[in-house]
Every structure is written in structure tokens, then in C-alpha cells.
């Protein structure tokens, strides 16, 4: 059976696609079935037509006897004519029967000949009728003629019945063929379905079961070249691949494990270096730790880091690891170009020496020639700006992969960013120190320097008065000196208090209350303090500048206003923060304030500088009826970053 199917596949299917084979078989079956059904229908239609012809031919006999009866009935001539006309119409219809309605064409011709005889016999019958009506023919003779006429009609009916019998037999055979075809097609369909679909699916299912049990050497027999044959080939390829993967699974797992370990090591290095760069270290410590880790990671024997001087843009030695002091001293003033090492080694003969050979700028090379002949150089970058170089030296060629080299480059970039950040932080600190020193100098100039200048003048006046023995003037001068010293002492205490200002955790209100409390203790002047609006957070920098402005304003009140009371109003508004400081002192003229601003009065200048730092607006004006008013307005968008 198996060889039979193989021959069937080879000679009939010929490697055709399953879909194409099924379409062809269905088309052939449909053609045969349609043909048999069509023949059956055609035969049935002929049977129907011949059955009608038999009925019509049989009715002719009845009509003959009916015409005989009508002939013997007086006054029935009209009925006879009607019967004769219908008789002739039936003959015409029988004469027009198509030849295709007959199984045998000869029988159709016999039918036509018999119809002609019936027509001739009809004419003879009509003649006998006339003879009978005229009395020339007896009843017995006329009836005998009618019987002879019906005998001719019987032969016509017999011809039609014979052909009808043949059609019935043909119809039965066609029905038997349809039945046999249905049985045969069902059997063939089951066999083909089993061979083309069910059997391949069973084999595929069995193969999948074997693969599921871990038998990766399972293979399916490729018996056909159709879709299931291709599926079997694909299954075999998959099984072979699985078998190969299973055989090399341990090696693959080991490779992936090694790759994972390598990735974890790289991540550990990046994490360690990132943690190092985020910590606060001095530059020398940061460089030493960085070099040590890069030396261990790369397997180098020595390591050198050069950084650019911010002023001269020249590379300077920032640190070394693995080199002797002599080698470091010789290396210090040269720029090592790692990209030229290999070229230099090829062009310069090797000389045995234990010292570090470095070429100066005239040779345009800077390298380790004998002791550590192999070098890798990486740029230390801060964003896009190169700020230094990392040199790794080794006695043997480096075994660093391209991935490890990219990792070192990444770490060098992080190192450069950390250094640049450290330098920027140092610059910020220096700027802050210089700014505060400038403010301190301004404060000293506006207070202590003026007091000391006044004391110097009074000392000169005192010396002159003592030299001229003017006791009264000397006593008055001493009183002025005492007042000046006290004023200078108060200024020093106030400056020290200002320098020690710290923002408390409670916020701006508590800081201002502390400033006003010190002012009251120094001057015995009452401060009327009030807060308006819904209090919200203020950033520390804004708080600090506001506190300093209030200190400076109260200091001016103490020195110049001669006031008895001070009002401080702090208003938290929806769009801004308002601060107003008013006193009831002597006040000033508007032109006097303008003149002091033009002359660069230190106190006014300090307050305006601090106001500008927080994007505020400062207004100094004289009060109606005496006194002065200092008003500060800071937009809310600059006050805080979070509600």
C-alpha cells in the first residue's frame, strides 16, 4: 500500500501543491457529477415528453370510436368536426416531436412514418364515414374500418412506449452510476484525505510529541513535495537546530554567563566611578583613585593623567601611578602623544635601558620607549571640550577589547565632567567670597572707616589743644573722641552681628524678628512689627538678601535718623512680597538723596545691589511730616520654586 501511494505521488501528484491537487480533484468530481445529473435530468425530461405523447396517441383511439358514435348520432355534425380538428392537432403535435427525445433515431423515423399512415388512414376513415352516411356502407363494415384505424394507432403507441421503455432503462443506469460515483468518490476522498492530510498530521503530531520528550534526533519522512512535505522539511530543520542548540547549550550558557559577568563588572566599574565622582574629594585624591581603578581595570603597568591649565591651556601632570620619581620628573614637562608610540617604535632602534626615554617637542614625540613600550591614550573630556589625557602604559600589548576601551572612554568623560564641576564649584565659592568681601569692605568703609577718620581728626585737634594749653577745648575734644569710639564700637558690634546672621529653620519671619530684637537692644527704639497676608515659603537666598536689606535700613536709622519709633510691615501678596520700613526721624530732602546716590553712597548702593540679586525693586523716599521710608518689592515668581 505504501509503494502504491508512492507511485501515486510520483505519477499523479508529481510534487504538486496540496491546494492545487484538491482543486483539480474537486473540479473533476464536480464535472462528472454534473454530467451524470445532467444526463439524468435530460432522460427524465424525455420521459415526461414521451409520456405525454403516449397519452395523446392513446387518446386517438378513443376519439376514433367517439367519432363513430357521433356519426351514428343524428344532428351531431358539429361535434364530429370539433373532434376531427382535435384529432388532426394531436397528429400535428406527434409529427413535431424532436428527434432528440428518442433514444433510437430510427424509431423516430418509424414514428413519423406511422403518423403519415394514420393521416392517410384518417382520410380513408372520413371516406368510409361519408359512405356510411349515404347508406353505401353497413354498420358492421363501418365499425370494422374503425377497428382497423385503431390498430394503426396502436402501432404508433407501441413505438412511443418502446422508446420510453429504453429511456426508463437509461435513467436507471444513470442513477446507478450516480450512486456508484458517490460511493467511489467517498472512498477516494477518505483515502486521499488520509494520505494527504490525516497521515501527515499524525506524523507531525508524533514528531512534536517526540520533541516534547527531549528526543531532538527525531526526523519526519518527507514523502511528498506538497505543503505537508515542506512542513516536514521545516520540522526536520527545526529538530536539527534544536539538537544543535541542545548539544551546545552548556557552552552557550557559559558564554552568556561570562558575558553577563563581564557586563556586571563593567556596571560595577561605572557605578564605582560614578559614586567616586559624586563624592566630595580634593582634586589630588580624585586623580589618584581614578588612576588606580583604571590601572587595575586595564591591566596596565603604569598610568599618567595630564590636565590642561585653565590659564595657559598647557597640559600639566596631575598624577601618576607605577612610575618612579625620576620618570615622573622627566615626564612632567612633556606631552605624551599615545598615538605616535607604535610609529616611533618602528622607526627608532631599541636600546636596552631602564630609564624612561622621553622625546622633547623638537622630535614631536612623547612616549615610553623601552621600559613601557605599549601605550593607550584616552581623552578626558568635559562635554565637548578636551581638558586632559589619560595614558596607560604596559610592558606587553594590551588585551583590552573594543568594548572595554569604550568603557574607559566613558569613564574618562565622567572624570572630565567631575573635574570641570569641581572647578566650577571652586569658582562659585571664590566669587561668593569676593562678593561678601566687597560687601564687608563697603560696610567697613561706610561705618568704621568714617568713624576712624573722624577720630584721627579729633586726635589731631586734641594734640593741638594740648600744645596750646587749651584745657576746655581739649576736654571737649576728648568728649568727641569718646563718642566716636563708642560709635565705632557700636558699628563693630553691628557688623559682627550682621556677619553672624543665619537663617533659622522657621523662615523669613523669625530671621527678621531676630534682627529687630538686636536693633531694639542696641538703640532702645521700639519697633512696630506686623505681617499681612497668607504666609508662603521663601527661598533661602531671597531670605538672606531681605534680612541684609533690613539690617542696612535699620543701621541707617540708628546712625542718621534720630528716630523715636520704627514701623516694619511685611505683606505676603498673591503676586509679590512687600517689605516697608518707616521711621519718624529727621528725614531728608529729595535732592539730598539724589546727590548721595550720584556720589555712590555705600549704604544705599549695598541695599540696591542686594535687591537686584533677587530681582526686586527698592524705593527710598522721605515721609510727609518727617522720617524716611524704605520699600522693597519682590515678584512672587522669584521668591520660591515650590508652593
Automatic annotation (TrEMBL):
Q: Where is the HAMP domain?
A: 195-247
Q: What range does the record give for the signal peptide?
A: none
Instruction: Give the residues annotated as coiled coil.
Output: 417-472
| Superkingdom in the source lineage | Bacteria
Q: Which reaction does it catalyse?
A: ATP + protein L-histidine = ADP + protein N-phospho-L-histidine
Task: Give start and end of each Histidine kinase domain.
Answer: 443-638
Q: What is this protein called?
A: Sensor protein
Amino acid at each position: 500500500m505504501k509503494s502504491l501511494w508512492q507511485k501515486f505521488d510520483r505519477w499523479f501528484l508529481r510534487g504538486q501543491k496540496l491546494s492545487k491537487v484538491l482543486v483539480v480533484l474537486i473540479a473533476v468530481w464536480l464535472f462528472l457529477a454534473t454530467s451524470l445529473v445532467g444526463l439524468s435530468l435530460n432522460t427524465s425530461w424525455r420521459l415526461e415528453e414521451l409520456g405525454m405523447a403516449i397519452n395523446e396517441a392513446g387518446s386517438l383511439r378513443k376519439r376514433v370510436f367517439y367519432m363513430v358514435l357521433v356519426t351514428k348520432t343524428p344532428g351531431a355534425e358539429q361535434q364530429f368536426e370539433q373532434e376531427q380538428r382535435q384529432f388532426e392537432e394531436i397528429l400535428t403535435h406527434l409529427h413535431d416531436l424532436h428527434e432528440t427525445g428518442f433514444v433510437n433515431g430510427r424509431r423516430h423515423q418509424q414514428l413519423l412514418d406511422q403518423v403519415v399512415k394514420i393521416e392517410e388512414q384518417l382520410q380513408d376513415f372520413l371516406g368510409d364515414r361519408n359512405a356510411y352516411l349515404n347508406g353505401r356502407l353497413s354498420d358492421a363494415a363501418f365499425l370494422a374500418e374503425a377497428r382497423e384505424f385503431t390498430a394503426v394507432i396502436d402501432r404508433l403507441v407501441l413505438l412511443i412506449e418502446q422508446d420510453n421503455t429504453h429511456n426508463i432503462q437509461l435513467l436507471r443506469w444513470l442513477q446507478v452510476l450516480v450512486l456508484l460515483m458517490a460511493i467511489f468518490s467517498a472512498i477516494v476522498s477518505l483515502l486521499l484525505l488520509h494520505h494527504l492530510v490525516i497521515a501527515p498530521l499524525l506524523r507531525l503530531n508524533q514528531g512534536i510529541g517526540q520533541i516534547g520528550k527531549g528526543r531532538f534526533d527525531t526526523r519526519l519522512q518527507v514523502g511528498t513535495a506538497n505543503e505537508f512535505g515542506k512542513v516536514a522539511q521545516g520540522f526536520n530543520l527545526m529538530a536539527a537546530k534544536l539538537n544543535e542548540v541542545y548539544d551546545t547549550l552548556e557552552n552557550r550558557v557559559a558564554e552568556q554567563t561570562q558575558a553577563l559577568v563581564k557586563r556586571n563588572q563593567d556596571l560595577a566599574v561605572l557605578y564605582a566611578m560614578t559614586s567616586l565622582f559624586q563624592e566630595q574629594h580634593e582634586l589630588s585624591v580624585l586623580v589618584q583613585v581614578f588612576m588606580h581603578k583604571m590601572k587595575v581595570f586595564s591591566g596596565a603597568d603604569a598610568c599618567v593623567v595630564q590636565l590642561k591649565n585653565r590659564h595657559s591651556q598647557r597640559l600639566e601632570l596631575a598624577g601618576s601611578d607605577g612610575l618612579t620619581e625620576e620618570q615622573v620628573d622627566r615626564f612632567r614637562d612633556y606631552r605624551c602623544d599615545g598615538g605616535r608610540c607604535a610609529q616611533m617604535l618602528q622607526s627608532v632602534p631599541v636600546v636596552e635601558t631602564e630609564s624612561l626615554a622621553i622625546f622633547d617637542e623638537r622630535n614631536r614625540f612623547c612616549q615610553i620607549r623601552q621600559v613601557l613600550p605599549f601605550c593607550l591614550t584616552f581623552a578626558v573630556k568635559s562635554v565637548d571640550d578636551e581638558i586632559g589625557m589619560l595614558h596607560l602604559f604596559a610592558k606587553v600589548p594590551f588585551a583590552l577589547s573594543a568594548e572595554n576601551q569604550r568603557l574607559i572612554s566613558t569613564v574618562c568623560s565622567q572624570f572630565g565632567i567631575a573635574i570641570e564641576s569641581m572647578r566650577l564649584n571652586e569658582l562659585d565659592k571664590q566669587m561668593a567670597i569676593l562678593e561678601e568681601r566687597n560687601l564687608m569692605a563697603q560696610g567697613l568703609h561706610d561705618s568704621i572707616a568714617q568713624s576712624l577718620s573722624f577720630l584721627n581728626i579729633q586726635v589731631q585737634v586734641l594734640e593741638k589743644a594740648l600744645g596750646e594749653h587749651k584745657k576746655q577745648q581739649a576736654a571737649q575734644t576728648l568728649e568727641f573722641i569718646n563718642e566716636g569710639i563708642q560709635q565705632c564700637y557700636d558699628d563693630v558690634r553691628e557688623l559682627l552681628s550682621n556677619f553672624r546672621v543665619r537663617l533659622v529653620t522657621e523662615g523669613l519671619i523669625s530671621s527678621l524678628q531676630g534682627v529687630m530684637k538686636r536693633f531694639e537692644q542696641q538703640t532702645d527704639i521700639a519697633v512696630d512689627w506686623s505681617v499681612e497676608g497668607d504666609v508662603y515659603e521663601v527661598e533661602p537666598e531671597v531670605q538672606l538678601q531681605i534680612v541684609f536689606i533690613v539690617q542696612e535700613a535699620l543701621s541707617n536709622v540708628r546712625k542718621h535718623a534720630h528716630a523715636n519709633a520704627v514701623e516694619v510691615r511685611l505683606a505676603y501678596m498673591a503676586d509679590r512680597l512687600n517689605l516697608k520700613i518707616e521711621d519718624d526721624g529727621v528725614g531728608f530732602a529729595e535732592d539730598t538723596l539724589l546727590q548721595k546716590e550720584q556720589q555712590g553712597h555705600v549704604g544705599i548702593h549695598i541695599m540696591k545691589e542686594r535687591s537686584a540679586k533677587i530681582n526686586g525693586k527698592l524705593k527710598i523716599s522721605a515721609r510727609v511730616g518727617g522720617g524716611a521710608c524704605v520699600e522693597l518689592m519682590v515678584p512672587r515668581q522669584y521668591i520660591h520654586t515650590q508652593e
